[in-house]
Amino acid sequence: MNHQEALRRSAVEKYLLNEMPQPERDEFEEHFFGCQECAADLRATAAFLDGAKKELPTLAPPQACAERAQETLVRFSLAAGLCGARVLLVVARRGLSECRGPAAVRRRAGAA
User: Residue 49: what pLDDT?
Assistant: First the structure.
């Protein structure tokens, strides 16, 4: 592997994140032992990653996020269902009050 190829492949980052297959890893190690620029990039990137791990808060595991999202969805569904039930109740009451309103009384009086 030469320097341009290491840059093109983002070899430093992949190496430090363990995202390289072993043969490519071996090839990169051979290269950066002889390439001052890649060795410097490797040291700087490693220092950055170490600092980021110390400074950034630990993210919640995906399972915890999924559980929290599911709880939120259940709460939203319940709230939406209650809102829908209220709307139906208002519509039903309005419909009943119209049946007992003046027009309904007149109809009954006219039928009698």
Answer: 86
